[in-house]
Every structure is written in structure tokens, then in C-alpha cells.
Amino acid sequence: MATIRLTMAQALVRFLDAQYVSVDGEETKFVRGVMGIFGHGNVTGIGEALERSAGGLAYIQGKNEQGMVHAATAYAKQRNRRQIFACTSSIGPGALNMVTAAATATVNRIPVLLLPGDNFASRQPDPVLQQLEVPGDYTISANDPFKAVSKYWDRIVRPEQLMSAALQAMRVLTDPAETGAVTLALPQDVQAEAYDYPEEFFAKRIHYIDRRPPAKEAVSRAAELLKGKKRPLLIAGGGVLYASAVQELRTFAESFGIPVAETQAGKSSLPWNHPLNVGAVGVTGTLAANVLAKEADVVIGVGTRYSDFTTSSKSAFARPDVQFVNINVSALDAAKWSGAALTGDAKLGLTALAEALGGAGYRSGYEEDEIANLKRQWDDEVERLFSLEHEEGLAQTRALGVIQETIDPSSVIVCAAGSLPGDLHRLWRPAQPKTYHMEYGFSCMGYEVSGAFGAAMAEPDREVYALVGDGSYLMLHSELVTSLQEGVKITILLFDNHGFQCIHNLQRGHGSDGFGNEFRYRESATGRLTGAYMPIDFAAHARSLGAKAYKASTPAELRQALEQAKQEAVTTLIEIPVVPGTNTSGYESWWNVGVPEVSVSGNVVKAHEEMKRRIQSARPY
Questions:
Q1: Is the pLDDT of residue 451 over 90?
Q2: Which domains are delineated in the chain?
Q3: pLDDT for position 574
Q4: Is the peptide bond before 145 cis (omega within 30 degrees of 0)?
Q5: Would you tell me how many other CB atoms lie within 10 Å of the CB of residue 93?
Q6: Could you tell me which of 425, 419, 416, 438 has the C-alpha nearest to residue 280?
Q7: Cα–Cα distance between 237 and 239 in angstroms, integer?
Q8: pLDDT exceeds cutoff 90 at 399
């Protein structure tokens, strides 16, 4: 057998460069490149390999380890999980910075390959700089926390172990159901050790992501369950988009007259103005979708994991006799709510179930114009909120209305945390698939700017907008600089409401007077953060980094700034001061956050009693 002598890091880079995936006969190079920040734990290993023999892999220099993994995650999400970036860091703090982003990828079932440096396997310079010394288990390093947030984890302590580990990593990264973060911990000495690797290990390898059909018996059971149901509701989750099943969803809904509600991950599966699209469902849902959810006698969940936001903490589906049909490639999600499980690909599942129901002559029992009337009422409410004027300044919903009417419908918006996801889920009107990019599986603050950079790399022909609150921006905006370095333009729409106002609202809605969530100066008289708002010039900050920047305090100024931003060739930030508390809420939704049973505040005790009342009407499992 012919061999080639390479270091472990060189072999890993060469292996990654030869990986491809095939979906529906379309072949794609799977690993586009590596994002990294070098330190003593990887610069002389993977760093040397990328410098001297990167092959076709691009190298992108991150500015924060968490941020670059968010960018890689967003890239893979926008590419429907068919192409990824690997991310490499040094040991210690550099590695640990990636843990939050690893969890974000895993919760959202997005493939990302993490290659953190690790302690010396030989232990010769023990303890090496940044090494943890755990007295009871000396094998533990800063990479062990990745075990909890990775779908596959391995530590390569001998160079020949790379071969089996790399193949296992690819198995998980290309799995449509059990994918997420994959971590290969790489001791810095082993990265530099040489081994005679068989040449065939580096041959082009195609991973076929075959569509998995649901069992015929499962389709028959689901069709039998549905035949007697008059008020079905379809819930489109992210699996619809990942499976490229938007046309099958549309055909299914139209064939049987079934309204479609969307999760955060599934939004844009249908155009907003489709007659059967009743919008967002759950805690951040529309009145139309939530009314239909309460009255549904069967819920057909397609590619959704039924998070508590989708189900309003299991209170959304109020009929005692409601049943569930779950089409999902993940057996874990297909089995939820004790539903009739169609475990398989969303496209094939919808097609098979449509054939079974069509043969039985099925049709929903909604009264004429019932869905249209609910949809019309909600559209009127959206127009009201988009036009809302506030005497103190720009309302958040008004700003969103201006943005909606000004940017191109083909643009991609990216968001993740705060009050904006709720408003966008309810109010945003996507006309094309994959134009609504929301990370809400983990709702990770700081994803927005990095995610927009990743999405823009994946969609170079579209304008990409990061919609971000001032709180999230302050947490993590480092990849703004990377976007400038790479010449990848994004537009950051920064909503400045002086703090973590989403949680401030949540506090006050459950008995608190508001504590610790606004960006105010500390008052000497009270000892608390109750002074004036801190004036932060975000536009000036962006300019200092090299971006273009504008500030817009009125609808007219915002419209003008958006038009000017379109003409800019580089990343641009628009600072938008908005009035705190002008976001949406309510609409037949509830979220169980847990309220203290005992408190010196009567308002808190009252909120606890309301929580207990709500729980009584929710399902226990």
C-alpha cells in the first residue's frame, strides 16, 4: 500500500480538502475552508499545514473564537447544511470561547467542525501554558467541556488515530438528523508528529446524504388518524427548508385546505401572503395561528422539534382530543407529543402522506373564508403596528415597517436574541425561502453580526442584514472587522433601546419593578443602576473599526439611511434609537418562566398564582 509521510495536522487538512457531499445527485465540496485564531496550541500544527499545504481550503482569520464559530454555523445553515467551515483555536481560553457557539450549532442541528488545540499528549512540558491541572483526573483539559455540547467528540493522542476519528466526524457532520458540533481535540505535540498515512485516505470521498422515506405502515397509520379530523394545522419547522420541501409543503396545504403556521426556523417556508400561511405560532405567534392552534383537532408538525416557544409551554394546543402527526428525519422529534411518527425526510414524508390522503378523498372541514378572515385581521394588525407612531420617538415596530418596505425582498435578515425575534416572527413578511435567518434554537446573544457575516459568505449575491439590539452588539461584534477584512459586505441594523429590554419586559410582566437590565449609570443615593441612560455612540464605534455608519431617529431618516447603505461597498451600520417597550407581546400566547412562590412583593405572589392557573391548562408532558 502506497503511503505518504505527513504530520497529523497536514493529514487532517488534506483529508478535509477531499470531502464532498451528494444530495439529489448534486455534488458539493463539503469543507469550504477553515476559520481560525492561532495560538501556541495550534499555530505550529494546523497553522503550518494551512500555510504550506491548504490545497483548496480557504483560511479566514477570526477575531473572536465564539464569533467565528457562529459565522461558520450561519454559513452552514444558509447553505442548507451542505457545506461547512472548520474552526481552529489554541488551547485554554481560545478553545473554551468556542463552547457557547458549539452548543448553538448542536441545538440547531447545524454541522460545524471544531479543532481546538489541547495539552501535550507526551506531558513533557507539563503543565503547558493554559493547561488545567485537575488533581483527580489529569486527562481533563479545557476541551472536555465540549463533550456536553458536541454530537461527536474525540481526542487524537496518536497521529494514526486521525483516520478513524476523521471518518467518524464526517459520519456525524453529514447526518441529516444527528448532526451538530463535532469536536476533535488536538494535542499540540501530536499535531506535529509524522506518520506514514495510506494515500487512499486522501482520495476524494463522496458522502451521500440520501433522503430517508418513512415506513409505509407509518404513513398508513397517520393517514388513518387524519381522515376523521376536521381542523388540522400544519406547523412548518426548519426541517422543511433543510429538506428543500417548500413546494411539497405548499402542495400538501393547498390539496387539503390546511392552514400553515411557522416556527422561527421554518419561517419563509411559504410566502407571507399565501392564503394558507397564518404566520408564526406559539409564544411569539400571530393571533391567527394561535387561535387556530387552540382549536386544532390534529397538528401536523413537519421538521419541528416542538420547542416551548412553538408550543407556548405546552399550552398552545388546547383541545383535549388533539392528536399529532410528526414528519421528521429525527426519531427524537418524530416521537414527541406521543404523535404518529413518520420518521423520515420531510419532502418524501409530505409526498407519501399526500398520496395516502388524496386516495381517500380527504379535505379539511374549515368553513368558507374562516382562514381568510383570520389572516385578514392579522394583516390589518401588522399594518397598524408598522405604522405606529410614538410621542417619545421611534417605535420598534415602526422601524421594522420602514425596513420591510425599503430593503429588497431577496435580502436575507439575520437575528437571534432579545425582543427583535418576537417582533420579526410575528410581523416580518418574507416572500422568498431562506430570506429569514433566525437562530432561535439557542437564542444566543452575539450571534447576529457573526451570523450575518457567515450568511453573506453563503449568499454573495444577496444583501444581508443583521438586526441586533444594543445588548447583543456589545456582547459580540468582532466579526464586523472580519467582514471588512474579507470584503464581505453586511448591513448592521442596530436597535438601541438602552439595555436588555426584552428581559426587562419579562421581569415587569411577572411582578418585578425592573432590576439590572437597563444600561443606566449607578446612582450614589440608591446604590443601584437607576441613573440616566448611558449615551453610547454606536455609529462612531463602527466608523472607528472601518465601517460606514449612519444614525436614524425618524422613519424618514431610516428610509434614507437604508437607501444610502445599499450604495455602500463595505459593511455598514445604521444606529436606530427606539423607544423601550415598543415591541409586540400577547396574542393568545404564554411562556412558563417560573415565578417565585414566596416573595415580599405582592405583585410577584400574584404573578405566581397566575402561573399556576396557566399551568393547569397546559399539558404536563
A1: yes
A2: 3-208 (3.40.50.970), 216-369 (3.40.50.1220), 387-498+534-577 (3.40.50.970)
A3: 98
A4: no
A5: 12
A6: 425
A7: 5
A8: yes
For range 236-247, the mean pLDDT: 98
Query: How far apart are the two ends of the chain, measured CA to CA in Å?
Result: 57
Q: How far apart are CA 204 and CA 202, in angstroms?
A: 6
- What is the structure's pLDDT at 509? 85
Unique residue bearing C-alpha cell 481550503: 57
Question: Residue 90 gets which letter from DSSP?
Answer: -
Report the pLDDT averaged over residues 171-176.
98
| Nearest by Cα to 107 from 152, 167, 151 | 151
Helices (H), 31-187: 46-53, 65-78, 93-96, 99-107, 161-173
Local structure of residue 214 (DSSP, 8 states): P
Buried b (16+ CB within 10 A) or exposed e, 127-164: ebebbbeeeeeeeebbbbbbeebbbbbbbbbebebbbe
Specify the amino acid at residue 208. Answer: Y
Q: How far is CA 251 from CA 270, 279, 324, 357, 567, in A?
A: 11, 17, 20, 13, 39
* 237 HSE (CA, 13 A, CB side): 27
Whether 607 shows a pLDDT value over 90: the answer reads: no
Computed on alpha carbons and rounded to an integer, the radius of gyration of the chain in Å comes to 25
Q: What is the pLDDT of residue 507?
A: 86
For the chain, the farthest-separated pair of C-alpha atoms sits apart, in whole angstroms, at 79
Residues contacting 40, CB < 8 A, separation 6+: 90, 91, 117, 128, 129, 130, 188
Strand order across the 298-302 sheet: 277-280, 260-262, 232-236, 298-302, 323-328, 340-343
Contact by Cβ (8 Å): 109, 243: no
> Could you tell me the strand order of the sheet in which 436-438 lies?
436-438, 412-415, 464-469, 491-496, 572-577, 548-551
| Residue 194, strand partner residues | 7
| Pick from 93-102, 368-377, 603-612: least confident | 603-612
pLDDT band at 590 (very low <50, low <70, confident <90, very high): confident
User: Could you give the 3-state DSSP secondary structure of residue 6?
Assistant: strand
pLDDT at 148: 98
Identity of the residue numbered 83:
Q
> Over the stretch 98-149, which tens digit does the pLDDT of each residue have?
999 999 999 999 999 999 999 999 999 999 999 999 999 999 999 999 999 9
Q: How many angstroms separate the CA atoms of 143 and 244, rounded?
A: 35
- Please tell me the total number of residues recorded for the chain in this structure: 621
Q: What is the DSSP letter of 520?
A: B
Q: In sequence order, what DSSP letters do the residues of 314-350 get, joined into one string?
A: TTS---TT-EEEEEESSHHHHTGGG-EEEES-HHHHH
CA–CA dist 78, 67 (Å, integer) = 16
Angstrom distance (rounded) from CA 422 to CA 140: 40
Q: Alpha-carbon distance 348 to 249, whole Å?
A: 11
For the stretch 492-535, pLDDT in tens is: 999 999 999 888 888 888 988 889 999 999 999 989 999 999 99
pLDDT digit string, tens, across residues 5-40: 999 999 999 999 999 999 999 999 999 999 999 999
Assess contact for 110 and 119: CB atoms under 8 A: no
